[in-house]
Amino acid sequence: MPDDFDVRLRQVGATSDRLRAAIGAVIVGQHDVVEQTLWAMVAGGHVLLEGAPGLGKTLLVKTLASCLDLRFSRIQFTPDLMPSDITGTNVLVTDERGSRSFSLHKGPLFAQVVLADEINRATPKTQSALLEAMQEHACTIAGTRHVMEEPFFVLATENPIEMEGTYPLPEAQLDRFLLKVVVPTPSEDDLAEILLRTTGHAVAAPEPVLAGDDVLALRSLCRDVAVATPVVRYASRLVAVSDPQHPQAPEIVRRTLRYGAGVRGAQSLVLAAKASALLEGRAHVAFTDIQRVAKPVLRHRMIRSFEGEADGVTTDAVAEALVAEVSARPAEVERAGA
Amino acid sequence: MEMQFREVFQRWALRVSRRRRAGGALAGLTVSLLVAVIAAAGAWYFRIDVPRPLGVLLAVALVAAVGALVGTALAHRRRWSDGTVALYLDQQLASDEAIATAIDLDEDAAARPTVMDRAQRVLRQGDHASVGPRVWRRWHAVGPVALGITVWLSLLPLPPGVAPAAPPPGVATVTAADVDGLDEVIAVRELTPADEAQRRRLDEIAARAERLRERLNDGLERREAQAEIADLRDQLQRERQRWASGAQRRGLEAALDQLGDVGALRDAQRALGERDLGRFDQEMERLANRLEDEDRQEAKKALEEAERAAAAAGAPDVAKELAAQRKRLEEQGARAQMMRDLAEAFGDGLSPEAAEALRELQRSGDPAASQNLGRALADALSDLTPEQRQKLGDRLREMARNLDPDTDRSEAPSREQLEAFGDQLDTPEGRQQLAERLRELAEAPPPSPSPGRQRQEGLGRAERGLGQAQRQLGLLPGGRGNQPGGRGTQPGGQGNQPGGQGNQPGGQGHQPGGQGNQPGGQGHQPGGQGNQPGGQGNQPGGQGRGGGDRADRSGFSRPVDGDALRAHADARMNAAPLDPGVSTTRGPHPGGRETANRVGTGALGRVGADEVGHVERSEVPREYREQVSRYFRP
Known about the structure:
Strand content of chain A: 15-25%
Oligomer: heterodimer
Strand content of chain B: under 5%
Distance between the termini of chain B: 145 Å
Radius of gyration of chain A: 21 Å
């Protein structure tokens, strides 16, 4: 007799299938990007989308927002964008009786799905305005703390090509993003499909698949996904050895990294793995889930050293090396299974 | 559900545990077999005495059993926890860690039922036959191979033992049973010494021989025995050569000068010059038998003069020896003269045998001829005719009348006896008495040898005894059949034996050539002839005539091919003191060859051959110089 968790798990499977189908109706290809974005949504984290202009980052976010019956806002980050432009500000208003008072005029941050487009074009001061909202799902304006309406979900994009006039995100802010999703250039087939879809009449936005409560239920279910101790230890080992000072750190880590991932990285690893398992219809996390989410979780949390930058070693390569070199199972089990 | 899962999981865990223990046992077995084959190979190589093959196989079986037990125990000690087993099963069953999660999950976890259900399904669907730790691994194949090698080693005969290193030459122990001839050395104590000093020396020699025999009784290294015997022999040689040496030399030379004036005494003079008193005595006996009365008187006179000259020159030993020989000449001569006179008295009644014996006596003076003559005369008595008996009686009476009453005739018949024989010759009893008297004369022993001769002969016997001992110890060729220079059956027989000791009585140089078929000496070299001065000890024994030929005994040596000669003087030198300028002995070479083990130190110096007195001035050994001087004396 199926229990409640099992029923909900099956519902998640059906819902995620519908969600993928809805997004897939708009977004051509980019399955990994869509999947990783869904992980973040289910896990309750935020996503930093990095890719060249015109790869559909903004469209993906807008499509996702359309699929979710949530309030969506888009913030185009520019160098002159002020924090109050995001968070909002108190404005002096005069009521009917002529008395004047300050009234909060909420900014675009007060939405459920926020698209921070080209986030690296704003100054760090403006970028920092997102920190509290992303971490605590609340925003303090003029001494008053305003809680965001759940589910709150930030998707930021940045352009890695145009570095002129940009402000790289500080590490503290990068750490707030659950995943950093790299949007690849579409394949030839996908590009052809994109051309066919976008050069004709505009396609209607997809119908909402999930309501806000559904998303919250998903996130709750994600937290219930079971994780065995060996899997957790594997995740912690992966993060620990990403520290170049760790005695068991791989040689590539020692050579190319200045800082490794931290505690938040480990948390993100397990959460993302739970989301991955959930979206695959499993009630438990496997080693493969950890390995699968390792790259998008860790790539923006590892700071390269001068030597690593000089050698052109990417954090993706380091994450792959970590997954390859750190054994998931005990050595005796590996030997017995060999 | 949880119970069901636990039940299923425990079955799997038990199976995994069993297979791991089996793998451990197999690994232990393999390692132990590997150790066993190494041990078996070591035991085989080092020839360790183990009953084969059963003992080896039992030992290997024991080691294998222990190894399997140890492997099982180690596997049990390192058994997996449930979590590890779950991880292994997750890996093998590709269950995405469902089993590990189900094992590890808290009871109040929301996902617990779902995870357990998944894990249970995975376990139930899993194939028991294909999942489980590997028991047999590739390296386990070493086990059967090692076992096969061990069985093969157990059946393989042990390798031959390493032969112990050959002992150094000469370290073999010899005992008194291996050495003869020491009795003759000990017997020198019984000899009559010339003086008290010689008494002490002879006693010392005898005592040394006794000590050596005692050490030999306890066992002595061959090389030590060889050295001691060689030293003893040197001492004996010195003792033999001590007679008439030193201060008495001049007396000896003065006596030799006197003897040299009489031609009949030439051989006796030579023997005396060589201090060979035995041969001197023999020569004098022959002379006594051979010389007629007039010649005997002349020789007697020469002996008297030589005796006086020796005494005057301070050689009492020489004078004493000459006096003894003079007396011997007198006695023996009178008896021999009596035999000759009796033979002549037979006249035409002399039998052919008696005539031949008479001729031989007159020619050689051999005592045996005198004996033959006496027996022949006794036999001839019975065949005489009455006329011949008459004539014989007359001549006997005449002989009795002519006898000098002052002459000591020793065992010869007296005047009265001769007259009685002449008168009673016609009667059978008278003839019988005469025949018996003639036989007594024939059988009468010769006069006792001089004390000097007895002493020299005793020392010579002792030295020959030591020579025999040296041959037995392999120091001299000819001792043992398997020694180089053996008894003629070995290559290089006695031909290269040093030519003997020229100053030994009778010499040793008359050794017959061996029968060996090897070139290089068959003993045809006479070496010292006994009457040769100084010996030829450092001379090789001459050339053989080639394979299979019998040696030439004529004393002739063919020309030596100088280019083909090779010296083999690389043997270990004997530690005994050296005689200047003389190589006296030869010994075996470790390589089977033969080489001198004594090296002379004398040198001929730088004297021109045409210089006056070059022989005296040259640095040759004294004895050799004297011999050369006499040889070239006009």
